[in-house]
Amino acid sequence: MISAAELGLRMRKTTNLDDIRIFVAVAEAGTFSAAAANLQLPASTISRSLTRLEKHLDLLLVRRSQRGLTLTDAGKEYLVSCKHALRLLREGHELLDIHRASPSGLLRVACPTTMARDLIAPLLSKFMEAFPDLRVELETYSSGFDQEPKEDIDVFFKVRAPKDSSRRVRSYPGTARGLFASHGYVHNAGMPAEPADLTSHRCIGSGRWTLSKGGKTVTPDVAPRVVTDDPLVHRQLVLDGAGIAILPLYIALDPAIAKRLVPILPGWQPRPVVPCALYSDSSRLIPKVKVFLDFIQKYLGTDLDPRLRGARARDCFTEPTRGRVSSSDRPP
């Protein structure tokens, strides 16, 4: 395996930047043809570029076979360095936007699918109208708590703040939640009297349920009959009488359905979901990132939040968690 010192020495040689970009594209695409399609270049150009880069470095970066392409150990190390370097170069160019009156360029945003659908999408038209020179690339992912941002993502939303991150973190008001079922379900299955009773009921959701009451916290041994993390799916199943689910209060307090729901264990509160945005330290100087974060902050968890349907923000959201937010990035 190539050493860090040897890799650094070889990277200091004059290298064609286009060859590096093509290598990254090949590594991410997995085949010459896919990379060629993504870059809109002939496959032969892609192949020659990679060969030229390997000769320049005197290292094999990619193994070719009939099944496709695989990175060598040196190729994997070099890919990490190249992606980081390309990001720094892109950010260096974008810092010049500071001298412009209006932010421009491409803003790459990643967030959980439910957040994209319920919060970001309803606000995008207003954002694009306010900043007509910006383009937005929105990437969605399943809302697993362990997701980490890619190097080329400018703003990465998570549904829980990370315990440790090399990026800056901006936290937003948390989403308060409660346990709910339909009148029909309660009539047929009865009303749980305490959290332990949930183990004998049909439950809908995912992960462990942590419930708090005063200073007491319990984690009942719930095995959901339906496992899903989409709150709109939870709502539909609850309304259909399928069981008990944890619902965000902005859904449960919607006047259109509130009368059809029965609060379950109202004294016990599920842990709120506290969303946050991750971005690199240098990104805070880039106008497009700053205006986007400031724009979202005006809406998320406030009375202007598009997820609200007649309910009040103070009934549906909690104060943002401030412990892991940079002092320069705390909401006013």
Helices, strands, pairings?
Blueprint: H1 4-11, H2 17-29, H3 32-39, H4 43-57, E1 62-65, E2 68-71, H5 73-94, E3 105-112, H6 113-130, E4 134-141, E5 155-158, E6 168-171, E7 177-182, H7 183-189, E8 203-205, E9 211-213, E10 216-218, E11 226-227, H8 231-239, E12 244-248, H9 249-252, E13 261-264, E14 269-270, E15 276-279, H10 287-297, H11 313-316
Parallel strand pairs: 3-4, 3-5, 8-11, 8-12
Antiparallel strand pairs: 1-2, 5-15, 6-15, 7-12, 7-13, 9-10, 9-14
Helix pairs in contact: 2-3, 2-4, 2-5, 3-4
What does this 3D model show about the protein?
This protein has 332 residues and is α/β, with parallel strands linked by helices. It is built from 11 helices and 15 strands. The strands form 4 sheets. The protein has a 5-stranded mixed beta sheet. Strands 11-8-12-7-13 form a 5-stranded mixed beta sheet. Strands 10-9-14 form a 3-stranded antiparallel beta sheet, with no helix packed on it. The longest helix has 22 residues, at 73-94.
Summarize the structure.
With 332 residues, the chain is α/β, with parallel strands linked by helices. 36% of the residues lie in helices and 19% in strands. Helix 2 crosses helix 3 and helix 2 (17-29) crosses helix 5 (73-94).
